[in-house]
Design brief:
Aspartate Aminotransferase, domain 1, Aspartate Aminotransferase, domain 2, seven-stranded mixed sheet, three-stranded antiparallel sheet, 15 helices, 12 strands, globular
Length: about 400
């Protein structure tokens, strides 16, 4: 059978992740220094693991409600009320015509984003995304038959209303913001969030705020008085739930990336459509792991985040001596520029790094430019130091 002839144009329009290609190269190295993967290096908190194990042993292994188990929805609603002031009744029947925001537990933040794009975008529709971007963002639009419109955010990597407005057309359905961001770790300011929301409101566009790294916001970027280091968010503007779809998750904060657990909250009519689509795709998020996520809200992750902030400071201090690097306000990535004096693209520079046993990701994986590289400092201090030694040596050449 000629399977290749049968592959859809939709699938042909999606390229394999460049990050995976680096992983494959790394698999051939004997002892690689891996600064490529966005996988937290700390152990999953014991109480979170225990709650998931207890759920499995208690035979809570069947389907859950599509929108999530009531216990988890209640904890999320309580958290969002305290953090951003949204009042969600987790037990109430979703009212798409009402004023209250809706809530859906999804299979990861990626699952929530897919559901949102499937619900909003059709052929020819447009979504404005930041450049650089998380690798899946352009393909969210592509698979829906739409178009991702790149918004250049260099050199500070901030998605501002001033940069977005000229890109809006009658086909624009979505503006997708990521704060703290992957790959640059940039954190939007409160004013930037407010101005972007105001623009989207005026143009009847959904603002999706991808806040998967919200807890990984460092002291110099979080808002004063806001609980648990949460980042500035457009969701704190009164009435924002009518225009903003908030997407958050558990994988990065608690080290459970393989559990595939996230949630979306926002316009009830949109959540209704996303819930309907989840019924026919993911069905529900993994039931016993949802019980683990309930326990996560009682865990204090501040010591871990403080340790990551120290790593961030070390990365910025050392790389600033040899190149340009914007100080990340959150997440656990840095996005330094490959020095122009080297005469190399980021992809060429990464090849030199791999020859030295160091795995980092070229900026072309995340951007229309190939001038920067992404490194993850979600690794132990010794490995990070070895990697920085090589980067400083190669960039200083």
């Amino acid at each position: 059978m000629d399977i290749d002839r049968l592959i859809s144009e939709r699938s042909r329009g999606v390229n394999a992740s460049g990050i995976r290609r680096v992983f494959e190269l790394g698999a051939k190295l004997k002892d690689p220094i891996n600064l490529s993967i966005g996988q937290p290096d700390f152990p999953v908190p014991a109480e979170v693991k225990r709650a998931a194990v207890e759920a499995i042993e208690s035979d809570r292994n069947g389907y859950s409600l599509t929108q999530g188990i009531p216990a988890l929805r209640e904890r999320i609603a309580t958290h969002l009320a305290a953090d951003i002031g949204w009042k969600i009744d987790p037990g109430a029947k979703l009212d798409p015509k009402g004023d209250a925001p809706g809530l859906l537990v999804a299979s990861g933040t990626s699952g929530a984003l897919w559901l949102a794009f499937l619900a909003l975008m059709g052929p020819g529709d447009e979504a404005i995304i930041p450049d650089p971007y998380f690798v899946m963002y352009p393909y969210l639009a592509t698979v829906c038959g739409g178009k991702a419109v790149m918004c250049d955010t260099y050199p500070d990597f901030r998605l501002t209303a001033e940069r977005v407005e000229p890109l809006i057309t009658p086909r624009t359905k979505i503006v997708l913001m990521n704060t703290p961001s992957n790959p640059a770790g940039a954190v939007q300011t409160r004013r930037e969030c407010e101005e972007l929301l105001e623009l989207c409101r005026a143009r009847n566009i959904v603002l999706i705020s991808d806040e998967i790294y919200d807890q990984f916001t460092y002291d110099d970027s979080r808002e004063a008085g806001v609980m648990n280091r949460t980042c500035p968010s457009p969701c704190r503007v009164p009435g924002s739930h009518e225009n903003v779809l908030l997407v958050r998750g558990f994988g990065k904060t608690y080290g459970v990336t393989g559990w595939r657990l996230g949630y979306a909250a926002g316009p009830a009519r949109l959540i209704e459509e996303m819930t309907k689509l989840q019924q026919y795709t993911f069905v529900c998020a993994p039931t016993p792991l949802q019980w683990g996520a309930v326990a996560a809200f009682d865990v204090d992750m501040e010591p871990v985040i403080t340790a990551y902030q120290r790593r961030r400071d070390r990365v910025v201090r050392r790389l600033s001596e040899v190149t340009e690097v914007a100080t990340p306000g959150g997440a656990f990535y840095a996005f330094p520029r490959v020095p122009e004096r080297l005469g190399l693209s980021a992809s060429q520079f990464v090849e030199r790094c791999i020859e030295r046993g160091l795995l980092v990701i070229p900026g072309s994986v995340f951007s229309s430019r190939d001038t920067h590289l992404r490194l993850s400092y979600a690794t132990d201090d010794a490995t990070l130091e070895r990697g920085l030694d090589i980067l400083v040596e190669l960039m200083g050449g």
